[in-house]
């Protein structure tokens, strides 16, 4: 895993984790990285300081401060379960449903689903709070 400091064309700074430098490059080239503040996909790596490990720390001390990949996966699974248990899945109607709630045409509730990048940007531009989930959504089966 690698953490990059990123900056969009509107000068918003944010950090994000990637599996590797190659994974970052691939996601960037396909427009899959977007600013968490404004949704812009015109993102570049920001200025970063190198991480310098303190050699006096033991390996055990260093690993205790960072969760293992298995712990991260377990937390993501718990988050996903919480979202699925406490939200309505609206599928590809996410942008429409979010806008209806914002305008008062539908009751407020927690929803999740899929939205095209341009639709998500439009929601943000209109002051409607949305955020990407750190996992792929799928239809909830009841």
DSSP strand content: 15-25%
The number of E-state strands comes to 5
Overall shape: it is globular
In the sheet with the most strands, the strands line up as 2-1-3
- Mean of residue pLDDT? 84
For the largest beta-sheet, the strand count, sense and barrel status come to: 3 strands, antiparallel
In total, the number of domains comes to 2
What level of helicity do the residues show? Answer: 25-40%
Distance between the termini: 35 Å
Determine the number of helices (DSSP H or I, runs of at least 4 residues). 5
Q: What structural class results from the helix and strand content?
A: alpha+beta
Which radius of gyration do the C-alpha atoms yield? 18 Å
Low-confidence stretches: none
Order of helices and strands: EEHEHHEHEH
Keywords:
about 140 residues; globular; 5 helices; alpha+beta; two-stranded parallel sheet
Give a structural overview.
- The structure is a single chain.
- The protein folds into two domains: 44 residues, no CATH class; 75 residues, no CATH class.
- It is globular and about 60 Å long.
- The protein has five helices and five strands.
- It has a three-stranded antiparallel β-sheet. Strands 4-5 form a two-stranded parallel sheet.
- It is α+β, with helices and mostly antiparallel strands.
- Helix 4 links the parallel strand 4 and strand 5.
- The mean pLDDT is 84.
